[in-house]
Specification:
This protein has 512 residues and is an alpha/beta fold. It is built from 16 helices and 23 strands. α3 packs across α12.
């Protein structure tokens, strides 16, 4: 379609079989829609859906040529289609494990992209160079922050190659069971952050009497103290003042070694890209998410890894991923997580359709099925090569999936614990987010929000719906920006200082 014709249309049709289209701008009541042979019965807000044909009560509402819900009442052509007349009902989905898996068109190694990364002594590749102060329990959070605060302002002036000292604190670690899934996920998260290549060195701070003992973690994970890892507890060190003083002294010992880091040219194949969306709107699945999917495809073709997450936000669209699985075993790992979530939400008197959020709905998303169909677009089109539990090390090359909640912060924490060294975060409503020690890029789904929040947004994917770029062109632009950010260029969230407070490990189980 010529770009001028694209711009003239007031709606977006995603597939010829769909019985709804999406408004590109607010459509007044009575306005006829070009090419749809229908007029709006009422005012249709921007980003919302309008029926292009009658939909009987109980019949499927289709978008992306997929079911996004069922009419809870008869819907006439031209009606506004949203939460007042659409519901989520159970329906069969054909998982067809692996039927769409195809060999990936890999870029020859001699032609693959590179970036300027940091090679650690053990060969791991970093995109940033932080010193981390981690905590075993909420009770040591204030002390950890005070230690990191000792290196604010110009305290690192003599260490120009150190990106900062960051305290990542959390609200758990005690009042919890010392066994079970909740315990396992906390251990995976802390262990993943402790060994993340973006930390040149780590200081672990505990209280001393908590369930999650520092000594216990060291034994369980095989941690050894050396010039890049120290551990201490407030009670053994002599209290708050003494621990802060000692913690600052230990980090001062770590700084010279951390400052020796230098960037060198490394293959883009060393990147693990975390794919996240939050504050979504109706354009998420039309602009930013498929554009990020195109960038993920490029990274995979260049030998790298892209990881999709948020299991509740692929619900209803999981069949699009199982069809791309390289084996039935990989596809069934994904479905096992789906079944766990169905049981988990039921046991906690919830439902999978408690998503979309109020902001998502205001932006035009009606059901979790609709949101999920847009969300999976971030995963591109290449084969699903493996599926991981939350915080599990991501070892495969190619497109992968990690089981995480839909809560943005917790989801990204899981991928970072798994080894993600750069994150792309799409948003239509305007989420603000950062995730130290990993750089996070923000991709806006629409031009209006991008212009309104340009200090927060790195790339305007609204150019796709504006007719100024194709999804493929935007994917290329995102891929190039990923390489620049991985090479040290600060993202908008880094400039604004985000990332210190955005550490919320997934908490499962009773608080006792």
């Amino acid at each position: 379609m010529p770009r001028d014709a694209h711009q003239a249309q007031v709606t977006i049709r995603l597939h010829k079989a769909d019985n709804v289209v999406t408004a590109k701008a607010t459509i007044p009541a009575g306005m006829s829609l070009d090419g749809e042979s229908v007029a709006a019965a009422v005012e249709i807000p921007v980003g919302h859906k309008i029926a292009t044909a009658p939909i009987g009560a109980g019949e499927a509402v289709r978008k992306y040529d997929q079911i996004i819900g069922f009419a809870s009442q008869a819907i006439a052509a031209g009606d506004h289609v949203h939460i007042h007349n659409v519901s989520v009902e159970a329906f069969d989905r054909d998982y067809d494990f692996g039927v769409e898996a195809r060999p990936t068109d890999q870029v020859p190694e001699t032609e693959r992209a590179t970036f300027e990364g940091i090679i650690r002594a053990d060969g791991r590749i970093a995109t940033r160079n932080y010193i981390g102060v981690l905590t075993s329990v909420n009770c040591s959070a204030t002390v950890a922050r005070a230690i990191a605060d000792g290196f604010r302002s110009d305290a690192l002036g003599d260490y120009p190659n150190v990106d900062g000292v960051v305290a990542l604190t959390h609200g758990t670690g005690c009042g919890m069971a010392g066994v079970g899934l909740g315990w396992d996920l906390l251990q995976a998260t802390l262990d993943g952050y402790k060994r993340h290549p973006n930390f040149a060195a780590v200081l672990m701070v505990g209280l001393g009497c908590e369930v999650n003992q520092v000594a216990g973690m060291m034994k369980h994970h095989g941690w050894q103290t050396d010039e890049t890892f120290h551990a201490m507890t407030i009670q053994d060190t002599g209290g708050t003042v003494a621990t802060v003083r000692e913690g600052i002294a230990r980090i001062k010992e770590m700084l010279p070694g951390a400052d020796t880091a230098r960037r060198v040219t490394v293959p883009a194949a060393k990147l693990i890209l975390g794919l996240e969306c939050g504050g979504s709107d109706a354009y998420s699945g039309i602009t930013a998410n498929p554009s990020l999917g195109a960038a993920a495809d490029l990274l995979v073709r260049h030998g790298g890894t892209a990881t999709l997450a948020e299991t509740p936000e692929i619900y209803g669209a999981e069949h699009l991923l199982t069809r791309r699985a390289i084996s039935r075993a990989v596809g069934e790992k994904l479905i096992a997580h789906i079944r766990w979530w169905e049981d988990y939400t039921t046991r906690n008197e919830g439902e999978m359709n408690n998503n979309p959020s109020p902001g998502n709905k205001a932006g035009g998303l009606t059901t979790i099925l609709e949101k999920s169909l847009g969300a999976v677009a971030k995963g591109g089109t290449t084969n699903l090569v493996d599926v991981y539990q939350y915080g599990e090390p991501i070892t495969a090359k190619g497109f992968t999936f990690m089981n995480t909640p839909g809560y943005d912060v917790t989801s990204v924490n899981g991928m970072v614990a798994g080894g993600a060294n750069v994150v792309c975060f799409t948003t239509g409503r305007g989420s603000v987010f950062g995730c130290k020690p990993v750089p996070s890029m923000k991709l806006a789904t629409n031009t209006a929000m991008y212009n309104r929040m340009s200090d927060d947004m790195d790339i305007n994917c609204g150019a796709v719906v504006d007719g100024d770029a194709t999804v493929a062109e935007m994917g290329q632009a995102i891929f190039k920006r990923i390489l620049r950010v991985a090479s040290g260029q600060q993202s908008k969230s880094e400039v604004l200082g985000f990332g210190d407070e955005e550490f919320v490990p997934w908490q499962i189980g009773a608080v006792m």
